[in-house]
Design brief:
Layout: E1 2-7, H1 14-23, H2 28-35, E2 43-52, E3 55-65, E4 71-77, E5 80-83, H3 91-99, H4 105-126, H5 141-156, E6 159-164, E7 167-171, E8 173-176, E9 179-182, H6 186-191, E10 197-203, H7 209-218, E11 219-222, E12 229-237, E13 248-255
Parallel strand pairs: 1-6, 6-11, 7-10
Antiparallel strand pairs: 1-13, 2-3, 3-4, 4-5, 8-9, 12-13
């Protein structure tokens, strides 16, 4: 039984999770093939090696084609948490998309659980029912691919237990669908409830709602790395360059010691 430990020293987001798993040995072609089972089109998945503060990592991007035929990179951006180019879906819409695929049932259930956590957090923040919530920044094609892809990655790497470090919190304000919001965004902060957190003084959002929801649905514990025989290490790159700080998510994958 394999264990994955996500070392979130610069935070965690959906694209960073995918990048870290691919960097640790997840077969990119196998991942892409599984994602093609989703009833989605108009996007492609790319990967490249980048450096963040002189450390090499893998950057995975979801390239989406707009109605005008332009290709854009959706997801966390330099001027805010997300560039939102798609429709705002409800939880029911997202569940239908995932259930309408031929992806393994356990993977589908885990991905739906991630979106359920997102909807639950947003419903609490906005004071409305979970069914009414429009998941603006986290229901586009990029978010679906990131979340389902991360769940596929855990399955393909035979990871059965997930642990994570304490989560770093940035400062300042970000632009989102509801206007200017404090960092962490209210939805992300709600998702971090019952998780260990600490302030960094870094300007900007470090833990995105997608990243927090993934850990909410998958993490068996938080804190120091669990005892394991370390086999694989991967670094997933974030979009921004943080001055003097490597914007990377590190994953350590190993086996239970005999």
């Amino acid at each position: 039984m394999a264990i994955a430990y996500f070392d979130c020293f610069s935070g965690i987001s959906g694209d960073m999770i995918l990048g870290a798993l691919v960097d640790a040995g997840l077969d990119f072609d196998a991942l892409s093939g599984e994602l093609q089972k989703l009833p989605l089109d108009g996007y492609r998945l790319t990967r490249k090696t980048v450096t963040r503060q002189y450390i090499a990592g893998t950057k995975v991007d979801v390239i989406v084609q707009t109605a005008e035929g332009r290709e854009i990179i959706e997801g966390p951006g330099e001027d805010g948490p997300y560039h939102d180019h798609g429709e705002a879906r409800h939880l029911e819409d997202l569940t239908s998309i995932i259930e309408g695929s031929t992806i393994d049932g356990a993977v589908r259930r885990r991905a739906i659980q991630v979106f359920d956590h997102l909807a639950t957090a947003e419903s609490k923040v906005h004071g409305i029912s979970k069914r009414e919530v429009h998941l603006h920044e986290v229901s586009g094609v990029d978010a679906i691919v990131d979340i389902v892809g991360a769940c596929i990655g855990l399955a393909l790497l035979d990871i059965e237990m997930v642990y994570a470090s304490a989560l770093p919190m940035g400062r300042g304000f970000i632009h989102c669908a509801h206007g200017l919001m404090p960092v962490p965004a209210p939805g992300a902060l709600e998702l971090m409830r019952d998780m260990p957190v600490y302030h960094t003084g870094i300007e900007g959002e470090l833990v995105t709602p997608t990243g927090a929801a993934f850990l909410k649905a998958t993490a068996d514990g938080h804190g120091v790395p669990p005892k394991m025989v370390l086999r694989k290490i991967g670094y997933g790159a974030g979009t921004k360059d943080i001055p003097g700080h490597p914007n990377l998510l590190r994953v350590c994958i190993g086996d239970h010691p005999e």
